[in-house]
Amino acid sequence: MSVGDSPLTRASLLVQLRDGANQAAWQEFMRVYGPLVYGFARKRGLQDADAADLMQDVLRSVSTAIGRLDYDRAQGTFRGWLFTITRNKIFNFLSARSARPQASGDGPGSHVLDNVADGNDGAELWELEYQRRVAALAMERIRSEFQDNTWQAFVSTAVDGKPAADVARQIGMTPGAIYVAKSRVLARLKEEVETLRRQEEG
Amino acid sequence: MKTGTVCPQTEELRQLLSSSLSGERSQECTQHLDSCECCQAKLEEIATDGTKLSQVVKNLQGAEPMATSAYWPALKALETDVSQTITPPAGAKAPTVVRSRDVSLAFLQPPSDTVYLGRLAQFDVMRVLGRGGMGVVLEAFDSRLQRNVAIKVLDPDLGGDDVARQRFCREARAAASISHENVVAVHQVEHAGENGLPYLVMQVVNGESLEQRLAREGRLPLREIVRIGMQASRGLAAAHAQGLIHRDIKPGNILLEAPQDRVKLTDFGLARVAEDVKLTRTGYVSGTPLYMAPEQAMDEATDHRADLFSLGAILYEMCAGAPPFTGNSVLVILRQIADTKHKPLREVDPTIPGWLSETIDRLLAKKPGDRIQTAAELAELFDFHWALMKTTSEELPSVCQVAIKKRQRRNMLIAGGVGATFLALGLFGGMFLANRGGVAAIEPVSSAEPIAVLAANAGAVWSVSFDPTSTTVAMGVEDGKVRLWDLPSKTIRATLDASRGAVWNARFAPNGDLLATSGNDGQIKIWQPSKNEAIKTFTQHHGVRGLAFANDGKMLYAGDRDGELRAWSLDSDEPLAEAKQDGEIFTVAISPNGETLASGGNGKVVQLWNAKTLTPKIALEGHSGPVNGLAFHPDGKQLASVGWDKTVRIWDVSTGELLHKCSGHGGEIWGAAFSPDGTKLATGGHDGAVKLWNTTTGKLIATYLGHKAVIHTVAFNADGTLIASGGRDGAMRVWPVE
Q1: I need a labelling partner for B540 at 20 to 30 A (CA). Which of B14, B337, B365, B596 fits?
Q2: Interface contact A124, partner B, CB < 8 A
Q3: pTM higher than 0.80 for the full model?
């Protein structure tokens, strides 16, 4: 994929997705929203293959709908709209499942369906997943701006949760320097996440 | 020096974060942070202020689905689907057609005939060629001048702005004033109707862009680089002479017109219009930074020499296979362009002639004043070296003329001397075959050489099929057309309009009288090879990816993307039998005696059916991913299946037992075919290699290399002496069977 055409740095992603010629935009789109829908579906109890199918379904609907400009920005954010679609599809999927005998004994169907039915539709979970996907993408994009040590310091502490003192010994930096590195990357990450989110909503 | 026991101020911590604190004080603060938990927390708070970022990134790396997850094939399938609807950049004749419903053509008048999409002044709009950043490009027929044209309409989103419109018109008129063989001719600049939407009428260029070519080939041969460099700089010189600066020269704007791949520059000056508007609206810089000149990147005063830098970057990419400045994000690339010297070509590839790498180095100088100053100068340089290089014997006379003219025109004694010497010694030797457009070239690659490489360059090839006499080969392409090649002369006999979407199948009937095609628009068409019109059409509701012709030449079996399976007879308009399976059907195959049908798709299970009634028989389980290809052994007792999991599986048709499982392909396998005598099986897939297997032992006999991208389909001819393969690189190769 041509980096130079990295769509998330150009005009709003959605405008670009409507531009049918923009394959790069679609790939970036799928890299963020694919895992989001899949991860969310898994957390709601769907098994791997089903979650993958659901992800395909949802993103396909999106690709057609965007072409027809069904998404009305006045009604909320894009990911809010995506969440509605995903949630509905999961509900439909689980309803259909519970009517059929499960192939693998202890199916995930029923108790999740209960959850979905009584209003706990996972909006918070979705939001968190979304933030994580954007953060993951942002991390990839800023990686090359940092020296290896700095990045390692950040990953080991902020992501892997290791104590700063241990990491300091491992890398050969002072604990203070570890904290500085971690926070510098976090600050840059925050910036990048904001840029990505702004462009999604732009 | 203080040991830093007193906590730094908040403001200092902020500065420490942004690296704007003094060196000494930074050190002190960092030391303080060794042990002060309060400040450690504070620093992080400042960094993530207002967000829950620390929470979000915790354990983030475990967030991707596992490598073995069904997620990945599902995503792949989705990407393939989406890319079916993608169109190439504006100006080039497109391999794929954008579905009309995806593009708003509301500004058109009703068409003069149902065959057209609409009408604009005297132009009958035939189809959408593509969409670019500026607007939409249409192919139309000029009813007044009786010729095909390309019409570029300013994006209505941008067209609303008066300033943008005026600029568009001004730049367009300047572009229209350039008349040069290396610049796409702009015929007219007009306004459409009452809302005055401006549009350009340009010549249609039949060919591909340099971007597409580079995507396919990576590095180009030296001769091509010099030729393209020469023609591009000539075009540029013509434009600069009119006072026009391009500002957005990139491989996507350099078109290669068939049949000689003549360079045609396009989109002059128009990039600026789009950029200005987008900049105002969204506040972000648009455009590809990869080829941008440093003064453009830093938003300083720009003149025509920026175009020369961009051309230099493109020449670099043609030589090295990658542009001189790359990075993970626009910001990184721009910084590199502004600050970092590019890696000299001599280091990347020492075989590149000194004059070329030095020229490119000069073009890539950061300061405009250090570059070659005019495109005309650059063009002369290329002219000279082009004349020195070996050329074809047909061009011999004109090159001699050029050499003589050069001698007369310039004061370069060396040129005169060398040119004269060459003429005297008759050293214009060497023959190169002209490989353009639909003409085949023989490319010796590895141990086995293809006897023919038939390149239509119109998009991915999804299906190939021999007629029983092996004189015609049918090629189903994603641009919706089926091309019939005459194998002995390696030329295209006919092009059939088979589908509004990609053509998934093009298969000759076993007795060769008829050809069946199926496409993503759900249409199955029967053709008589001599006529260019379908004699029969069957319709299914979704794209038909699986199609098989029975040996009796009368029955056709089709499976579509909604899982619907149908048995069609040439004698009837309605299907004789129907069935439905879960998931999408990617492939179907019919046994030689016409009694058993096999279907496979993203459901991973190969289903066997009674072909007459379409009642299910046995299900063959074992593949761990989608099944892309199926083939019956000529004796009808065995079935081969291939797919995503890279294995070739051979089954016993009556018992459902797995007889062989062959591994050896490096990636997903798409096509499979048995030789007519049943002793061999050919497969092709993701790794671009055609593999030939011994069906009794299951061992690999041979591997044919040559395709540059994933292979989608393989087929044997009637007597088993040839194999044809086709795939994403848009070319079909015909191999002798070992």
Answers
A1: B596
A2: no
A3: no
Does residue B34 sit at the A interface (CB-CB below 8 Å)? yes
Task: Tell me which chain A residues have a C-beta less than 8 angstroms from the C-beta of B33.
Answer: 175-177, 179-180
| Residues B440-488 pLDDT 10s | 322 222 356 788 888 877 788 999 999 988 889 999 998 889 999 988 8
Quick check: A22 and A8 in contact, CB under 8 A? no
Name every residue whose Cβ is closer than 8 Å to that of residue B401 and which is 6 or more positions away in sequence. none
- pLDDT value at position B217? 86
Of A15, A23, A52, the CB nearest to B71: A52
Does B419 score more than 70 pLDDT? Answer: no
For residue B210 the two structure tokens come to: 């340099």
Collect contacts of A67-76 with beta carbons under 8 A, ≥24 apart. A67/A18, A67/A20, A67/B101, A67/B102, A68/B101, A69/A18, A71/A14
Residue B433 has pLDDT above 60, yes or no: no
Identify the closest residue of chain B to A133 by CA–CA distance: B63
Say whether both A87 and A155 belong to one domain. no
Given this model, what pLDDT does residue B199 score? 84
Which positions of chain A have pLDDT values less than 50?
1-11, 68-71, 100-119, 202
B75 lies within 8 A of chain A by CB: yes
Nearest by CB: B78 against A2, A59, A180: A59
State whether A139 and B57 contact (CB < 8 Å). Answer: yes
Whether residue A163 is found in the same domain as residue A135: no
Count structural domains, chain A: 2
Average pLDDT over residues B27-49: 90
Cα separation, B730 vs B222, in Å, equals 23
Last residue within a domain, chosen from A141, A158, A180? A141
Query: Using CB atoms and an 8 Å cut-off, which of residues 26-55 of chain A contact chain B?
Result: 26-27, 30, 34-35, 38-39, 48-49, 51-53, 55
- B687-735 confidence digits (pLDDT tens): 888 988 888 887 788 888 878 788 999 999 998 899 999 988 888 999 8
Asked whether this complex has an ipTM greater than 0.90, the answer is: no
State whether A109 and A159 are in the same domain.
Answer: no
Q: Which residues of B are catalytic?
A: 248
Most confident listed range (B273-277, B395-399, B450-454, B461-465): B461-465
CA angle B356, B357, B363 (to 5 degrees): 90
B48, B82, B98, best to mutate vs chain A, most A CBs in 10 Å: B82
Backbone angles phi, psi at B265, to 5 degrees: -80, 145
Nearest CA in chain B to A69: B102
A163 touches chain B (CB under 8 A): no
Residue B259: asked if its preceding bond is cis (omega within 30°), the reply is yes
- Which residue in A has a C-alpha nearest to residue B102's C-alpha? A67
CB contact under 8 A, A132 and B103: no
Same domain (yes/no): A132, A156? no
> Could you give the C-alpha distances from B544 to B78, B602, B611, in angstroms and in order?
17, 14, 18
Cβ of A135 within 8 Å of Cβ of B47? The answer is no
pLDDT at B204 exceeding the cut of 90: no
Report pLDDT for A200. 63
